[in-house]
Amino acid sequence: MITPRKKRIIEFINSYSRKHGFAPSMPEIAKRFDLATSTVHQHLSELEAGGHLKKEKNRPRSIAIAEREPMIKIPLLGTIAAGQPLALFDTPRETIAVPKNKIPSLSEVYALRVVGNSMVDENINDGDTILVKHQDTAENGQKVVALIDNQEATLKKFYKERGHIRLQPANKTIEPIILRNGRDVAIQGIVLDVIRENGAAAISIPEHKGQEKDKELSLNKIICGDATMFHADCSKAFKLLAKNSIDLIATDPPYFLDGMDDEWSDRKLKSKAAKAGAIRGLPVGMKFDPAQGKKLQEFFVRVSVEALRVLKPGGFMVVFSQGRLFHRIAVAAEDAGFEIRDMLIWEHNGGQGKAFTQNHFVKKMKISDEKKRAIIERLQGRKTPQLRPKFEAILLAQKPRDGTFVENWLRWRTGLVEIDFQSQQSTIFNYKKPNMRKLIDHMTIKPLDLMERLVQVFSVPGQTVLDPFTGSGTTGVAALRNDRKFIGFEIEKKYFNIAVSRLKNHEKT
C-alpha cells in the first residue's frame, strides 16, 4: 500500500504526462505539492523501490508509471516480537501481494510485520514488513528470524562464535542476546527484503519499560489509521512511550494554568473572556501576574523531562508560546536538558487590540469635572502597554545529538532540517489565522498550513510526531497529510472527540 500523498503524486505524473507528452520535473512536482525538492526525491525513490515508478538515471523527465509487475501472494504470519512461537506455514490469517521478482524460485517465503526498533541501523523500522525465506541454517552476519527456547521469536543478526551464539541487534542502545549453556535456538528463516509500509498500518505504541500498562489509558485509546489518540493527562500517557521512540514533538501547551479548572478545561477561561467588558477577548486569568509564569515554568519542566526521554537524539521540540511567557518555556526546556536552538515567529494577520485608555477610570474618580478633564488632557490618549499582537513566539529546542550531525542523522535520521522550499525557509512563518472558530470551538486553533510546514521542516516522511496537548488535532492532521505517523494526548473530552473526528477525515480537512 502507498500513502495518500504518494497516490496524488502518481496521479499528477500520469495527468501531466498525458497532457504534455513527457513527465514533470522534480521542481514542478515540488511546486505542485508545495514540497521541498529533496522530499519529492525521497517520495519518488520510495515509489520506485516499491515498483510503482521507473526512472532512468541521469536523464531529465524520465519518470514513468511502471508497468504492473506480476504479483504473488505469500502468508503474513503476524509480528516479529517477543511472544508465542510462530506457527510457520500453517493456514495464515492474512496474505499480502508482493512482486514475483522478489521471491526466489522454489523457495518457501513468508512475511512478518516488525514491531520495535532493534534493527534500525539495518534500515528495518517499526511498522515495516519483512520477507523471510524459510530455512533452518544461517551464515554469520545474516539477518534471521530466530526462536529462543521454543517460546520467543526475535529478529536479529546471527553470529556463531566460540562456545556461544550471538544474536546481534542493529541498534547500539540494545544489548546482544548471548545463547550458551545449552539454551536452544532455532533458525526460522533469513530476511530477503523489507517492504516499507508508510501509512499502511496503525502505529504500534512502544511501551516504556518498567511501567505497567495503564488499563484506563488503554480503554481511552482510539486508533485512526496512522494516528493514535489518548484521552488522557500527558503526565500519565507519556509513560506509555519508550525512550528514543519519537521523532518530533510539536505542541501548544496551556498558558493560563491559573484560569483552568481541575481537568484543564477552558470552560472557565471562556466564561471570563465573555465577561471581560472593556477588554473583551482578554481573559481575567490572563492578568500579568508573575506567579502565573513561574507556575507555567514548573509545569513545563516536568513535561520537558518526559519529552526529552521519548525524543530520539537530535529530535526537535517545537513549542508555541506567548511572547511574555517565552522565557519561562525556554528556561524550563533548558533545565530539563534540551538545547535551545532558536526563537521562531508565527507572523499572522493580527489579533484584537487589547490596549485601552484610562479615561473611564479618571471619570470615576471622586474629584471635580474640571480636574478630571485636566488629567485626561495630560494623559494625551495614551493606552495600556498592550500593542496589537501580530505574532506568536515558537520555541525551537533540540535533544542533544548522538555524535556529530552526520553521525546522528545516519543513526536516528534526526537533527537536520529541510529549508529549501520555493524560497528558503526563514525563522518567520507567515500564515493567516484560520477562520474556523465557528466550525471548531477551540480558543487557540493553529493554521493547518503552518503546522504542515513545521512538520516538513523538522521531520521526514514515515517518522512519528507527538503532540502532548493535541487540542483540536491540527498537528495530527498536518502529520498525516505529510506521510507521518501521529500520537496525541488530550485531557478534555470535547477536544479529544473533535481531534479524533478530524484525524479520521484528514484527507477532507
Note down, in words, how this protein is organized.
With 509 residues, the chain is of the alpha/beta class. Helix content is 28%, strand content 24%. It has 14 helices and 20 strands. The strands form three sheets. It has a nine-stranded mixed β-sheet with strand order 4-3-5-6-11-7-8-9-10, with no helix packed on it. A hairpin with an 8-residue loop joins strand 9 and strand 10 (177-179). Helix 2 (26-33) packs across helix 3 (37-49), helix 7 (290-310) packs parallel to helix 8 and helix 12 crosses helix 13 (474-481).
Q: Which SSEs are present, and which pair or pack?
A:
Elements: H1 4-20, H2 26-33, H3 37-49, E1 53-55, E2 63-65, E3 71-80, E4 94-99, E5 109-114, E6 129-133, E7 143-148, E8 152-161, E9 164-168, E10 177-179, E11 185-195, H4 215-219, E12 221-224, E13 227-231, H5 234-237, E14 246-251, H6 267-274, H7 290-310, E15 311-321, H8 326-336, E16 339-347, H9 359-363, H10 369-379, E17 391-398, H11 405-412, E18 428-430, H12 448-458, E19 464-467, H13 474-481, E20 485-490, H14 493-504
Parallel strand pairs: 3-5, 13-20, 14-15, 14-19, 16-18, 19-20
Antiparallel strand pairs: 1-2, 3-4, 5-6, 6-11, 7-8, 7-11, 8-9, 9-10, 12-13, 15-17, 16-17
Strand numbers in spatial order across the main sheet? 4-3-5-6-11-7-8-9-10
Structural class: alpha/beta
Find the count of extended strands (DSSP E, 2+ residues).
20
Strand residues, percent: 15-25%
Largest sheet: 9 strands, mixed
Our measurement of the CA-to-CA distance between the termini, rounded to an integer number of angstroms, reads 22 Å
